[in-house]
Amino acid sequence: MTTPWILGLTGGIGSGKSAVAELFIEQGVHLVDADHAARWVVEPGRPALARIVEHFGRGILQASGELDRAALRRLIFADTAQRRWLETLLHPLIGQEITAYLAKADSPYAILVSPLLVESGQQALTQRVLVVDAPEHLQLQRTMQRDQASAEQVEAIIKAQASREERLRHADDVLINDRDTQWLREEVARLHQFYLSLRGGQS
């Protein structure tokens, strides 16, 4: 059996990449979510969690022994050196998790969904990149509704992510998600057929 090629799927907050990912799963495509991998590597009993506790102290654990993400976030966003230490520890482990899960794929191609595909260097694991894009007013509206967040909070997140121009510069394919769900389903089905025709992700 030939090894599946890897499609990177990314997009800014509120672009609808999760909806697109779900539609690809409906098409039978094997999919790995980088956010899930980031959570798996710090589960209780995993070496990464022990290293984090050793470094930051037990104050970053909940009573259940699980990582207190909010407490950790406060520590690392206040201190760039601490954030770098954490990224140096976790990025290779997250990469290993992603690679292991992608290796289990039995579809002709597999998808790596990552909001930080470009920024984190995870793009190196892929042969092709699909960017889900949406006008900024739609990103704002969707995220405010979903997260019950203020416009200021959402705008700050949009600014912290790679710029739209930066993401689009890395795109092989762009899906502008500014219409209804039925249209999106048809677009994903069309892209899926196109991807099935590719060898190693290239036409």
From TrEMBL:
Family listed: Belongs to the CoaE family.
Localization terms from the record: Cytoplasm
GO molecular function: kinase activity
Alphabetical UniProt keywords: ATP-binding, Coenzyme A biosynthesis, Cytoplasm, Kinase, Nucleotide-binding, Transferase
Purpose: Catalyzes the phosphorylation of the 3'-hydroxyl group of dephosphocoenzyme A to form coenzyme A.
Pathway: Cofactor biosynthesis; coenzyme A biosynthesis; CoA from (R)-pantothenate: step 5/5
Annotated binding of ATP, by residue: G14, S15, G16, K17, S18, A19
UniProt keyword Mitochondrion present: no
One Pfam family linked to the record: CoaE
Superkingdom, taxonomy of origin: Bacteria
PANTHER family noted in UniProt: BIFUNCTIONAL COENZYME A SYNTHASE-RELATED (PTHR10695:SF46), DEPHOSPHO-COA KINASE-RELATED (PTHR10695)
Protein's recorded name: Dephospho-CoA kinase
E.C. number(s) listed in UniProt: 2.7.1.24
Main location: cytoplasm
Reactions listed under catalytic activity: 3'-dephospho-CoA + ATP = ADP + CoA + H(+)
Signal peptide segment: none
Organism of provenance: Pseudomonas cuatrocienegasensis
